[in-house]
Amino acid sequence: MSLHIKLHLDYQDFDLDLDLQLPGRGVTALYGHSGSGKTTCLRCIAGLEKAGRGRIQINDEVWQDSRQRLFVPPHKRSLGYVFQEASLFAHLSVQANLEFGLRRIPKAQRRVDMAQATELLGIGHLLQRHPQHLSGGERQRIGIARALLTSPRLLLMDEPLAALDSKRKGEILPYLERLHDELDIPVLYVSHSQDEVARLADYIVLLSAGRALASGPIGQTLARLDLPLALGDDAGVVVEGRVSHYDPSYQLLTLQLPDSPLQVRVTHGPLAQGKALRFKIQARDVSLSLQAGERSSILNRLPVTVREEIPADNAAHVLVRLDAAGTPLLARITRYSRDQLDLHPGQQLWAQIKAVAVLA
Amino acid sequence: MSLSSADFSAIWLTLKLASLTTLILLVVGTPIALWLSRTRSWLRGPVGAVVALPLVLPPTVIGFYLLLALGPNGFFGQLTQSLGLGTLTFSFSGLVLGSVIYSMPFVVQPLQNAFSAIGSRPLEVAATLRAGPWDSFFTVILPLARPGFITASILGFAHTVGEFGVVLMIGGNIPDKTRVVSVQIYDHVEAMEYAQAHWLAGAMLAFSFLVLLALYSSRKTKAGWS
Predict the structure, then answer these.
(1) Are B212 and B151 in contact (CB under 8 A)?
(2) Which terminus, N or C, of chain B has the lesser number of Cβ atoms within 10 Å?
(3) What is the interface pTM, i.e. ipTM, of the complex?
(4) Inter-chain residue contact B129 with A87, CB threshold 8 Å
């Protein structure tokens, strides 16, 4: 199960040169600023644009191989595409929009049915409506359901939330998370929002000027200091943990770090024990100390090892990459503190975590 | 005093000519308009200009060239003669051909505008939902361009009804074959039969007004894309 995407494309003012080997399951984010080539890449995979040279293989299906002059037209590729604007057919009702793709899939190949799609995206009550009379968020949910109903082998999403205000975004994100949890369809998700990527993606490809700067699992990649991701005020890491237990009297949730005995605590509503949970720890919320045992209001203290440090976005700070029993963490501290602590790689000390944000 | 049987025959011939012309133009004009709205070829300008020529040329100029081309020594004339069809000048078929050329921009341009307004996104969406090119044409483009087709049909039909110069040049004035209403009015006036000319001219005026009224009243709402 894997996606192999090799694209070479020359435009007058832009060129794309990619050779990506991506996991065939879960959500892979194509992340980058506008103009980095992420949408073009997605359109080439869909066949809406034709890269001069390239090879696109989705699991065992080859969609393009320019060496063999093979180019499968988009309508013969088993994919679902969600555009930035929902792009519903204005001449059709919501129901007819949903059925447009479904009707064109042979019955034997249907793995997602109408009841499942409408339930998953919460659009059952909208079926008889007309696209003109829907909100932006409702339209986008229908666009997603419409794409799912073709039972695609690959779902391509081109900034599906970018055209929505933050309230509508918050309205759709939970549905996207359910998609991720309940359907076994690999998703390529184009985005320039670190928040969305942190919440949804398992794997990330960082694009810049038509090249892939880096790619890898989300937790490790966000913690890499050699990437521009780490710069800026919102640098941080995403950790995939599990609920260890919940203390109702203090309303504290204890989370287990992956493959380690370490735990963090966060104020939160009750959640079932063992539930997989994703949370973000921002570099600016992590401070370092040489001693463990002071009494303090800080909830979380983890033993960590210093791995490396780089200058932060301004001269007064440095970014430090830490290792907490296998889980990477970032700390953003002042250069003054760095010198006071005499920080060096391999050093063992304590990370104090001021805030943990539960993402999903 | 009212319409004579010759008048009715002219009206019938006019309606027949306009219906046939509109039908042919919808079939021929749709692919041309679709191509003009989508292509990036350098031929787009020249083809667009040729289609629009009848808008600016005097009908006599079009009629003159058609007369030459369709006549015994013209390119089309030789072709039709070699096929055993004789020449198309001064025949109903010749009138249809002339009308198709003369009314072409009135059908192609509204269609082209409608297709351009739809843009390429609906077709991309349709393709990602497994609809091939022909499938998308019938299930997406045609329904979305419906207002454009209505406008094109009305304008093509009405403009053919109002044709005079081209008819006179290539069709002449043969009862039941090429004598359409506009020519019949001309005949009445030449013969000083003003009363009869009034009836026909009045009917044309009323028809044209009603057609345009229908057209402009229906333009209140336009199907959009969301």
Answers:
(1) no
(2) N
(3) 0.80
(4) no
